[in-house]
Design a protein that fits this description.
Keywords: Membrane, Transmembrane, Transmembrane helix. This protein has 339 residues and is mainly α. It is 82% helix and 0% strand. The radius of gyration is 31 Å and the shape is rod-shaped.
Length: 339
């Protein structure tokens, strides 16, 4: 009887087939490509340097808008013998400026929340970006199932075939040995590359960014950016030249004077075009990657957390060590010798 070895080889064959079918049936090539799309797009922005730039830009915008509303407008109104409310009526002649000043108190907290989420998830993003390793794209995860699956299906099928034929052959023994080695490789590779911790970080990141990568959130941020951009453009091209003319100065002189007296405002006016362009790029990147994020977030399925994926390989690896390993023990060899 070769029952033990034949059962073990049959299980090896079936496990190999399962490892081939699972990633293909689950759509893993497309899903892992979604991961790479998101990571490639946001890698620079989610780096330590990129997050610091976003934080500093947000602080610059907050300080500029705060000084504009609490110091600059009241003092400019006083110079014109007006109340701040009357001065706001004057600025009302510039609809984009009026709209921006009216809505900025609700717009900025929304961007603060997004930047805060990015800062909180920076480390998790960078860990997830190293799945399976720092130098290999996420699409390679598919092959961590396919390649072992093909090897196991071949060696398991060949070993089972020669075992059933009933002739003396070393192939069943070799097949079992290869299966044990493959099991050890799956376990060691999963643990050595820290896939469990990396996928836990990916899961936390997906949970945090799921509300951000949605069509309603993107549309809201897109409209907010349009409001801020129109506000900044009209302030620079129409409102400031008009106020400068009322003061008998050129726009450059007036801007320089304000920058000297109101430093936060001056710094903000100088850096606003760059800051808005950067944030607008980030918002549009989110819009372009909504589908890719959904694909990435559905690994291995929409209802199953990604942190379970390493356990599929670990459990398969342990099974390969235990079952074919048991068939290689003296009991299995005695059965074959007796037969």
């Amino acid at each position: 009887m070769r029952t033990i070895r034949q059962v073990a080889l049959a299980l090896v064959f079936l496990l190999g087939v399962g490892l081939i079918i699972f990633p293909l049936a689950d759509g893993m090539p497309k899903k892992t490509q979604g991961v790479d799309n998101v990571q490639n797009t946001f890698r620079d922005g989610m780096s330590v340097e990129g997050l610091k730039t976003s934080h500093d830009d947000l602080v610059t915008m907050q300080a500029m808008l705060k000084q504009l509303k609490t110091e600059t407008i009241p003092q400019l109104a006083a110079r014109n013998n007006q109340t701040p409310e009357q001065f706001m009526v004057l600025l009302g002649a510039f609809p984009a400026v009026k709209k921006g000043l009216t809505e900025v108190d609700t717009i900025m907290p929304r961007f603060e929340a997004v930047v805060g989420t990015m800062e909180a998830q920076g480390e998790n993003f960078r860990k997830a970006d190293e799945i399976p390793t720092a130098d290999v794209p996420n699409t390679a995860v598919t092959y961590t199932f396919l390649i072992p699956g093909i090897i196991l299906a071949v060696v398991g099928g060949a070993g089972l075939f020669f075992s059933i034929r009933g002739r003396r052959s070393v192939i069943p023994t070799v097949a079992l040995g290869v299966s044990v080695a493959m099991g050890a490789l799956l376990v060691a590779g999963t643990l050595a590359t820290d896939q469990i911790d990396k996928t836990k970080s990916a899961e936390k990141m997906f949970n945090a960014f799921r509300p951000v990568f949605s069509e309603p959130k993107y549309q809201q941020m897109h409209e907010d950016m349009q409001t801020l951009t129109a506000f900044a453009n009209e302030m620079q091209t129409k409102a400031i030249p008009t106020l400068a003319a009322m003061s008998g100065q050129s726009a450059d002189q007036y801007t320089a004077g304000m920058a000297s007296q109101y430093q936060a405002l001056g710094k903000g006016l100088q850096e606003t075009p760059r800051i808005l362009a950067r944030f607008n790029g980030m918002v549009e990147d989110i819009g372009r990657n909504i589908d890719s994020f959904k694909d990435a977030d559905s690994i291995p399925s929409a209802d199953t957390p990604v942190s379970q994926v390493p356990w599929y390989l670990l459990i398969a690896g342990i099974g390969l060590i235990v079952i074919p390993g048991a068939a290689l023990l003296p009991l299995g060899r005695k059965e074959e010798q007796a037969d």
